[in-house]
Amino acid sequence: MLERCHHFGGLSKRDCAIALRIAHAEAVKTASGQTQASTRGNAWPDSLDTVTAGVHVGAIGQSNTGHPCRSGRVLSVELIGDFTTVVSPPPVLACQPTPDYSVHAVDLDVDHASGQICRIGARTGTVSARSDATVIYHR
């Protein structure tokens, strides 16, 4: 298991600490009812494989959580794994095979100043870590 929080890939120690705190809370919430592995006193869900983070300048105008991202710096956190408790199925015609709508990534945009999530999204299908992000946790 890899969990690192030193100055790496453009993330400050504070950036990394915020990202790990947010990722851990969201992963535990998302994996509610799933088994968890013990890692140095923290329980990370078994369904979580990787957490990445990156920082960019800007604001998020369209929050879907009720918390704005207006500080001018946004921390983007990506959780990659198998999140069976998150459902994202659009309608499928009866004559078509049902595609795999399992969620394999949860994307979080976090206001750098407040540390609150201002936008959350989910991705289905085959997912890989963003190339512009730093891996801060990997099972």
Task: Please provide a written account of the structure.
The chain is mainly beta. Helix content is 13%, strand content 38%. A 6-stranded antiparallel β-sheet has the order 1-8-4-5-6-7, with helices on one face. The protein has a two-stranded antiparallel sheet with strand order 2-3. The radius of gyration is 16 Å and the shape is globular. The protein starts with a strand and ends with a strand. Mean pLDDT is 81; it is low at 35-41.
User: Gap between N and C termini, in Å?
Assistant: 4 Å
Class per helix and strand makeup:
mainly beta
| Strand numbers in spatial order across the main sheet | 1-8-4-5-6-7
Give the oligomeric state of the chains in this entry, treating copies of one chain as homo and distinct chains as hetero: single chain
In total, the number of strands is 8
Rough shape? globular
> How many helical elements?
1
Please trace the helix and strand order, writing H or E for each element.
Answer: EHEEEEEEE
Overall residue-averaged pLDDT value: 81
| DSSP strand content | 35-45%
- Rg value: 16 Å
Low-confidence regions: 35-41
What's the helical proportion of residues?
A: 10-25%
Q: Tell me about the biggest sheet?
A: 6 strands, antiparallel
